[in-house]
Amino acid sequence: MKKSLTLYYDPHEKETNGFYPQTFYSDGMNEIVIDFIFTDGCWKQDTEDCIDELDTTERNKILHLLNDDRYSSKIIVDPLGYLI
Which run of H or of E encompasses 13? Predict the structure, then answer.
């Protein structure tokens, strides 16, 4: 199962501190579509820009958007297999 989510990030923060996308838009943010695949019982990011970290609130919001009756997990990993 593959799902694509539109998320938002601060381009300055991405250049200086890391990539921390979120589910809501704020002024000055850029939009990005991030693909996730359900594999081995978890959601794995399937795009090149590795998410560095998600806070608990954003992780839960993203999992809510990804999970459904057939594919459900509390785990998100980056393309290299590290928990995010």
Answer: helix 11-16
List Cβ neighbours of 9 (8 Å cut-off, separation of 6 or more).
19, 20, 21, 22, 29, 30, 32
Closest to 59 (Cα-Cα) out of 76, 35, 45: 76
Which residues 6+ apart lie within 8 Å of 38 measured at CB?
Answer: 1, 2, 3, 44, 66, 71, 73
Map out the domains of the chain as residue ranges: 2-77
Q: Give the single-character DSSP code of 56.
A: H
| pLDDT at 40 (0 to 100) | 93
Query: How is residue 29 annotated by DSSP?
Result: P
pTM of the full predicted structure? Answer: 0.91
Question: pLDDT digits over 34-63, tens only?
Answer: 999 999 999 999 998 899 999 999 999 999
Distance CA 17, CA 35 (A): 22
